[in-house]
Amino acid sequence: MLKAIETSYKGYRFRSRLEARWALFFDTVRIPWVYEPEGYELPSGRGYLPDFCLPSIGNTLVDVKPLPEDFNGEPHFSEGTKEAQFSEVCWQNGSTQAYALIFGEPGPVEPGGKMSSYVVHAGDYPYYFCVCPWCCRVGLEFDGRGARVCGYQQHHKTEEEAFAALRTTPYRDVRRVDDKCYSFNDPMLLDAFSVVRAHRFGT
Ligand SMILES: [Zn+2]
Fold first, then answer.
1. What DSSP string runs through 12-40?
2. Please, are residues 139 and 149 in contact by the beta-carbon 8 Å criterion?
3. pTM of the model as a whole
């Protein structure tokens, strides 16, 4: 495996350029982040230190990994790794700790196309960064369902009002506002991905 290049960003020394690039993505879309907040002891006795905590996304702990070398378009993660052990602890019944594994570089979702990244959350897939259609807050939701980021009730009294307030793009085909409103391809996110991918880090 190639050795990761330590990368400085905002006064932090990230263990890899990939981690720094995700930190830049979080900043670009205004998701607050804490780097390596706290270590945990796994049932096996090994220590584990997640890369990020995202306080505005339900204190989700996040670990960032390169795309698996055998990646064939089918999202998965390897059993037996520390991440797999930690995910079992988080995803078992009764745990309220949200934990997401992000594989690959920040980039747009291209259904049917080559994926630059994927997110496994609570053992479930696919999760995408997406946008609340009403206030533009960015969240991480199953299938990129923007309506789940805040819920229309946070912004409007009735479904009719919420529906009328939808911005045009990317919600042209939306008929209901109670759950879906897919927004992983919101222009704001696409712009952020372009900025983040073009960024050149020093070392
Ligand atoms: Zn909102």
1. EEESSHHHHHHHHHHHHTT---EES---E
2. yes
3. 0.90
Note residues around ion ligand 1 (Cβ under 5 angstroms).
Answer: 132, 134-135, 137, 150
Rounded CA-CA distance 124/142 in Å is: 8
Q: Given a cut of 80, is residue 199 above it in pLDDT?
A: yes
Residue 96: the pLDDT is 77
Q: What is the DSSP letter of 100?
A: E
Q: How far apart are CA 122 and CA 120, in angstroms?
A: 7
Across 68-82, 135-149, 159-173, the highest mean pLDDT is recorded for: 135-149
Helices (H) and strands (E) in the chain, counts: 5, 11
Ligand 1 centre distance from Cα of residue 83 (Å): 31
Between 156 and 95, the more confident residue is 156
Query: How many angstroms is it from 188 CA to the middle of ligand 1?
Result: 14
CA of 132 to the centre of ligand 1 (A): 5
